[in-house]
Structures are given as structure tokens and as C-alpha cells.
Specification:
Structural class: alpha+beta
CATH architecture of the largest domain: 2-Layer Sandwich
CATH superfamily of the largest domain: TATA-Binding Protein
Number of helices: 3
Number of domains: 2
Strand order of the largest sheet: 2-3-4-5-1-8
Shape: elongated
CATH class of the largest domain: Alpha Beta
Low-confidence stretches: none
CATH topology of the largest domain: TATA-Binding Protein
Helix content: 10-25%
Distance between the termini: 31 Å
Length: 163
């Protein structure tokens, strides 16, 4: 039998950062729209920026918190968020005729945290999901992806694992 080496692939990562600065999204949005920022207030309170490289979305909240999803590595997520922070820091707001002010020129990422990583792999053997479903940290969804009728196992770790 031909042995294959399992390849683990990270598909998605969710990272949050805190800048510690309050923002008025409504006043920033007109200056940031040319950079791909948008907000649909009927659906969501945050301002959003979608990027192509890396392909991800960053949500920017009034309280200075930012959430990035879609990146495959922590570096990609950090770079995408740092790009948002840099663009917000460069926004000038007119306070009087001919006078401008940069309210967030000193904005920096104060802390960041990866909350969720979604990965996939292939293995050269069959996995009995019913056996794995008996563990207390595993949730088994028989019809998670109804369109393709694929079963899904979700493992929840009670401890943080870093490799």
C-alpha cells in the first residue's frame, strides 16, 4: 500500500486586535471609501474593508477593536489589519476652513489574539466519525454541509495549543 504524507492546510483564521482608540466611523468613512472601506448600517455597525492580497475582510468597530477573518496565517492577518490602521491614521478631518486634523495619527495595534483556526487534511485511512463523536470535546454534525451531504467533526480544545 502506498503511504501518503498528510498535508495540513490552514483554510481560515480569525484574529482580533485592540487599538485602544475610540473612532467615529461615520466621519472617517468618506475619506476611506476610495480605499475599499464601506459600511451598511442597516445590516451591521462596523466599517468593513475587504482585501484581495491576502484575501480577507477586516471589521473596524467604534471602540477601536478590529476583527480580521479569511487570512491563512497570523502574519497575513496582522499585515491586513496594519494596512487598515495605517489608512485610518492618515485620515485628515477638516476642523475649519483650511485647517485639518489627524485624530488617529498615533494609532497602533496594542494587542492581538488569534481566536479561531480552521484547517483541513487528508489521511491515508478511513476515519470512523461515530467513534470520535463519543469524546466529550467533540461535536458531530451528520449534515453540516447539506448541499454535499458531508459529515463534520468539530473538536473544541479546553487549552490553548501553539506550535
Amino acid at each position: 500500500m502506498l503511504q501518503t504524507v498528510p498535508i495540513i492546510r490552514i483554510n481560515n483564521m480569525v484574529m482580533t486586535v485592540h487599538t485602544g482608540e475610540q473612532m467615529n466611523i461615520k466621519s472617517l468613512l468618506p475619506a476611506l471609501q476610495p480605499f475599499g472601506f464601506y459600511q451598511n448600517t442597516k445590516r451591521f455597525v462596523a466599517m468593513t474593508q475587504r482585501t484581495c492580497d491576502p484575501r480577507s475582510s477586516t471589521l473596524i468597530f467604534n471602540n477601536g477593536k478590529m476583527v480580521n477573518t479569511g487570512s491563512r496565517t497570523a502574519d497575513e492577518a496582522t499585515n491586513s489589519i496594519q494596512s487598515c490602521v495605517d489608512k485610518i491614521a492618515n485620515v485628515s478631518v477638516q476642523i475649519a476652513p483650511g485647517r485639518y486634523y489627524q485624530p488617529h495619527k498615533d494609532m497602533k495595534i496594542k494587542r492581538s489574539m488569534v481566536h479561531n483556526i480552521v484547517g483541513s487534511t487528508t489521511v491515508p485511512f478511513k476515519i470512523d466519525l461515530n467513534v470520535l463523536a463519543k469524546y466529550e470535546f467533540v461535536y458531530y454534525f451528520k449534515l453540516m454541509f447539506v448541499v454535499q451531504s458531508l459529515p463534520c467533526i468539530v473538536s473544541r480544545s479546553t487549552r490553548k495549543i501553539a506550535t
